[in-house]
Amino acid sequence: PQAGAVGTGASQYSGTVSLNSTTSSKGFSLVDSVRGGSSTVDLQHRTGGKGVVFTDADNVWGDGTPGHNQTAAVEAAYGAAQTWDFYKNVLNRNGIKNDGRAPVSRVHYGNAYQNAYWDDQAFAITYGDGANNQHPLTQLDVAGHEFSHGVTSATAGLQYSGESGGLNEATSDIFGTAVEWNANNPQDKGDYLLGEKIDIFGNGKPLRYQDRPSKDGRGSADYWSAAVGNLDVHYSSGVANHFFYLLAEGSGAKDINGVHYDSPTVDGSTVTGIGRDKAVQIWYKALTSYFTSTTDYHGAREGTLKAAADLYGANSAEVDAVDAAWTAVNVQG
Ligand code: ASN
Ligand code: ZN
């Protein structure tokens, strides 16, 4: 009979982590029976097929380097577990569809593939190994990002183009960041950056910045304009990422966990943050109660104002902060 076991793994970005596994004929399988049967599979550099569930004789996985085939699996399994726990404990959601079913995590997709993605049909998160197969896209905030695409698909269903696409992308960044904060991992501390440990560009810079999205130098929008809906969804997301940072932390400059942030407002106004936890609750409530497939930035403003009123009262400081943060990114009432 198969039974749950607790192993240990050496990840590349998150240090040594505890992993749930299941006993099998090979010793142990990387299947987490405590979290919906979440499994981690090896695509063996193919671009299709179901892959092979990782197994191990002694329940000690990976070696912390990309040279060991299990290292990316350790990171992906850890990310899936932390994301599952974030949704359960912080948002009271039981998996992507709130039905207890866990997604599959698939690593070693293709050759030096520099991306990760969610697939509704496969119900899977798939990770490439990055440049030279040395920079897997498996960082915790990316796991949270991809899992959250599944949640958005199962709830608001925000269309992946135009302004709704930007909101879809930002939702994944917002919860990816929240997963990283919630994990409280000393090797991958909470921040408002996406994919900062992957070195995806080879210059040490993160994939995205929430305090001032244009820091990416690639065209992410800091503020709403009529042109935002024509941008790639990973750039139009900037407006909502910036809104979220301002709502949580407020405007201006500060250092958090050794990272410098400098978040401007469109009109020079000052926004006072309400903290990460409340900002996360407001976004989730808006996503699951008010956003639809065609919600645009104006609709996101209305939906988050309603969500804040539901959670904290119509005359609350939280509602005022939501109002101020949208105004600060040029989404006007
Ligand atoms: N990693 C990308 C994302 O999740 C893949 C894509 O473009 N959909 O946004
Ligand atoms: Zn995405």
Topology, pairings included?
Elements: E1 4-10, E2 16-24, E3 27-29, E4 31-32, E5 38-42, E6 52-53, E7 55-56, E8 60-61, H1 71-89, E9 104-109, E10 116-119, E11 124-128, H2 140-154, H3 162-183, E12 193-194, E13 208-209, H4 233-249, E14 252-256, E15 259-263, H5 276-289, H6 297-312, H7 317-328
The structure holds asparagine (ASN) and zinc ion.
Asparagine (ASN) binds near residues 146 and 149.
Keywords: Hydrolase, Metal-binding, Metalloprotease, Protease, Secreted, Signal, Zinc
Main location: secreted
EC number: 3.4.24.-
Give an account of the 3D structure.
The chain has 333 residues and is α+β, with helices and mostly antiparallel strands. It has two domains: 4-138, Elastase, domain 1 (Roll); 162-328, Neutral Protease, domain 2 (Orthogonal Bundle), CATH 1.10.390.10. It is 35% helix and 18% strand. The chain is built from seven helices and 15 strands. The strands form four sheets. Strands 4, 5, 6, 9, 10 and 11 form a six-stranded mixed sheet that branches. A five-stranded mixed sheet has the order 7-3-2-1-8. Strands 12-13 form a two-stranded antiparallel sheet. The longest helix is centred in the middle third of the chain and has 22 residues, at 162-183. The protein is globular and about 60 Å long. The relative contact order is 0.10. The structure holds asparagine (ASN) and zinc ion. The site of asparagine has 7 residues, from β10 and α2.
Summary tags:
alpha+beta; 333 residues; 35% helix; Elastase, domain 1; binds asparagine; binds zinc ion; Neutral Protease, domain 2
